[in-house]
Amino acid sequence: MMTAVQREIYRHLRDFAAHFTPPPPFSPHVEISEGQIIMMMSPAGRHDLAALRIERQLQPQLADGIVATTSGDIEEADLGQLRRPDVLVLPEAAMDTDDAISPRALQLAVEIVSTSNPENDYESKLHHYPRLGIPHYLIVDPRNGTCVHYWAISEGGETPAYEARVPYRFGDKIPIGDWIIDTSELPRYEQGVQ
Questions:
Q1: Do 151 and 175 form a contact (C-beta atoms < 8 A)?
Q2: CA–CA separation, 115 vs 99, rounded Å?
Q3: Which of 47, 82, 106, 152 could form a disulfide with 163 if both were Cys (CB 3.0 to 4.6 A apart)?
Q4: What does the pLDDT look like over 100-141, one tens digit per residue?
């Protein structure tokens, strides 16, 4: 849990983020983690195309009342986290809020690795998403055509973590619960783009 000072820092960062418009070429959306505002470069076309294709694949497979979407901030103020996954799967009712969505409503978070800050997906979010209670986390990396599915959150110990991990390559079909993501439909970044 956060100290009183950390909570106050988060509150100030959250207030700042609510009124801050990053300059180009940064994304208009910011994240907060570890007491810092994280500004991201605006995603490239293939990044957004991968997210859109995953969203379209998942939507027909989901039960009534569950949606796949490429928009929505998630927030757990008690952990100092404001995040924006590239694809979220959650009950539609959880989106009926004037504030950020509770990450505990998510059934899956998908991150498409960006060329500008891959550590955010592979390190920071991998550390924080199990603490936020997100049961499935999929990292899609168009740089090298790989994916990693994490799940099974350990509850023992001080810090929850994912216990299960399976790597995939573009072309594989990834089972996530009752859903399948066909990675053969996902675009790769141009060679040499890092």
A1: no
A2: 29
A3: 152
A4: 999 999 999 999 998 888 999 999 999 999 999 999 999 999
Contact at 8 Å (CB) between 124 and 71? no
The model carries a pTM of 0.92
- Does 67 map to a domain? yes
Beta bridge partners of 39: 30
Burial class from Cβ neighbours inside 10 Å (0-12, 13-18, 19+) for residue 181 reads buried
4 found inside a domain:
no
Alpha carbon distance 125, 132 (integer Å):
10
Q: Is residue 19 exposed (0-12), middle (13-18) or buried (19+ Cβ within 10 Å)? A: exposed
Q: Which of 70, 77, 119, 115 is nearest to 95 (CA)?
A: 70
Report the alpha-carbon distance of residue 94 to residue 72 in Å, rounded.
11
CA triplet 99, 123, 44: central angle to 5 degrees?
A: 70
CB-based contact 101:71 (threshold 8 Å)? no
Domain with 173, as residue range(s), is 42-185
Write the CATH number for 105. Answer: 3.90.1570.10
Residue the block writes with tokens 């076309």: 45
